[in-house]
């Protein structure tokens, strides 16, 4: 078996081709999930720096979903062997199988050694169905990848299927036509957070509809998620029409998280076109950074991308409507499928021009502000993971092809009235 460590390349290499640069970014960013993965559970740690006074035990369910997908990329790109990827995935699946879950759903954070809940906020100490959806986006993809008839891959598929069938999606409606984000054994429904769009939660409704055992009805989607004053938009910003969501589109992760597995190419429903949404959302975000109405230092056609990340004042959901002068590399880099030329421009700027400040052992740092001369010392699983996965979807469509091949996904999309070339 090859060494489990991947040696970081910290010296900026000047003569890389575009393909070599993409390889390097995927490989080095993957170290976050591989070398820095939790030693007991194998899951993705929430962040690379200690935070929230919880020490080193905090692992994240949604971030682990991205990490599981990243391992598939790493196996296909030969950063690690398929056997190594399968064994680490089995370790994660075995751990989750014994970890705390509530009506089949997992909490946002777990203790990576014990599998017990670490509460995310005072009342958020139970199920989080959005994080669970992001986790299962990765696990369903894994179940479509690890198809060999051997003990390791058979076990991965078997346990993922069993855990999937254990999720009681209907419980999270409280008998209403909307999904609720949280439920806690200690606090019940007291967080009372209805999941309404447009945001990163599209994947939650599609998976909830896809369940054979406890799937939600289409009406939960139309009356719940789509019934919101910020679901449809239809206006133009910087001459780009935005079908959905907040003015200017909100943080760019809205176009990433649900679409690490969900293929937006040709994805439409009666409300709009999701490829148009994601592409124009990205173009608006970039155009805003070029316009730079607040005149921040460092914004340009090469240095753009506003999304949720750390900042000089703590964690913030950066967007044109919440602009603190912070550029977050995952914003432009996870948008490779939508704006390949512009994302490559940004990548070359981040690596060749700014690499001495923002390139690190786990890829790019989380965020930076030239205006404030601030450079994060952190990396976050939910920012690093989409970089690897979305670059791969741009290069080969690998994760999109795997995830969309699942009967669960096809069932959910069909039930909610979506059309996609992958449903034919």
Describe this structure in words.
With 424 residues, the chain is mainly α. It contains 14 helices and 15 strands. It has helices at residues 18-34, 61-76, 82-98, 129-145, 151-165, 202-210, 218-225, 274-291, 329-333, 340-353, 355-358, 381-395, 398-404, 407-415; strands spanning 58-60, 109-111, 117-118, 127-128, 182-183, 236-237, 240-241, 268-269, 272-273, 308-309, 316-317, 359-360, 363-364, 368-369, 374-375. The strands form seven sheets. It has a three-stranded antiparallel β-sheet with strand order 1-2-3. The protein has a two-stranded antiparallel ribbon with strand order 4-5. Strands 6-7 form a two-stranded antiparallel ribbon. A hairpin with a 6-residue loop joins strand 10 (308-309) and strand 11 (316-317). Helix 1 (18-34) crosses helix 2 (61-76) and helix 2 runs parallel beside helix 4. The longest helix has 18 residues, at 274-291.
Got a strand count?
A: 15
Low-confidence stretches: none
Element order: H for helix, E for strand = HEHHEEEHHEHHEEEEHEEHHHEEEEHHH
What percentage of residues falls in helices of 4 or more residues?
40-55%
Biggest pleated-sheet summary: 3 strands, antiparallel
Radius of gyration: 20 Å
First-last Cα distance: 41 Å
Q: Give the amount of beta strand, in percent.
A: 5-15%
Query: Please, what is the average pLDDT?
Result: 96
Q: What shape does the CA trace take?
A: globular
How are the strands ordered across the major sheet? 1-2-3
Keywords:
424 residues, 8% strand, single chain, 3-stranded antiparallel beta sheet, globular, mainly alpha
């Amino acid at each position: 078996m090859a060494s489990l460590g991947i040696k970081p390349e910290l010296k900026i290499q000047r003569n890389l081709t575009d393909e070599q640069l993409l390889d390097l970014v995927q490989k080095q960013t993957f170290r976050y999930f591989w070398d820095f993965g939790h030693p007991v559970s194998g899951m993705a740690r929430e962040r690379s720096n200690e935070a929230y006074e919880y020490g080193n035990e905090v692992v994240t369910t949604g971030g682990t979903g991205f990490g599981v997908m990243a391992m598939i990329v790493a196996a296909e790109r030969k950063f690690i062997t398929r056997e190594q990827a399968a064994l680490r995935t089995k370790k994660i699946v075995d751990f989750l199988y014994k970890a705390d879950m509530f009506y089949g759903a997992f909490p946002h954070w777990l203790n990576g050694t014990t599998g017990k809940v670490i509460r995310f906020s005072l009342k958020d100490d139970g199920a989080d169905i959005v994080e669970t959806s992001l986790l299962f986006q990765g696990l369903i993809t894994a179940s479509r990848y690890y198809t060999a008839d051997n003990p390791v891959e058979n076990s991965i598929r078997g346990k993922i299927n069993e855990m999937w069938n254990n999720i009681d999606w209907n419980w999270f409606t409280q008998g209403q036509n909307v999904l609720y984000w949280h439920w806690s054994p200690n606090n019940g429904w007291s967080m009372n957070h209805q999941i309404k769009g447009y945001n990163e939660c599209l994947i939650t409704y599609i998976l909830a509809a896809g369940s054979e055992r406890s799937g939600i009805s289409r009406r939960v989607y139309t009356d719940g998620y789509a019934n919101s004053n910020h679901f449809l938009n239809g206006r133009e910003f910087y001459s780009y029409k935005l079908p959905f969501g907040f003015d200017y589109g909100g943080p760019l992760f809205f176009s990433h998280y649900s679409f690490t597995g969900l293929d937006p190419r040709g994805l439409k429903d009666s409300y709009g076109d999701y490829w148009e949404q994601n592409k124009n959302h990205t173009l608006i975000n970039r155009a805003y950074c070029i316009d730079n109405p607040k005149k921040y230092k460092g914004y340009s056609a090469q240095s753009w991308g506003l999304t949720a990340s750390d900042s000089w004042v703590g964690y913030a959901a950066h967007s044109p409507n919440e602009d603190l002068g912070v550029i977050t590399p995952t914003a432009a880099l996870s948008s490779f499928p939508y704006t390949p030329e512009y994302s490559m421009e940004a990548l070359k700027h981040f690596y060749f021009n700014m690499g001495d400040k923002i390139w690190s052992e786990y890829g790019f740092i989380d965020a930076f502000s030239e205006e404030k001369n601030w450079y994060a010392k952190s990396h976050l699983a939910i920012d690093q993971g989409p970089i690897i996965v979305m670059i791969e979807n741009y290069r080969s469509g690998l994760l999109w092809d795997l995830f969309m091949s699942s009967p669960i996904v096809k069932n959910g999309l069909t039930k909610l009235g979506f059309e996609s070339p992958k449903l034919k």
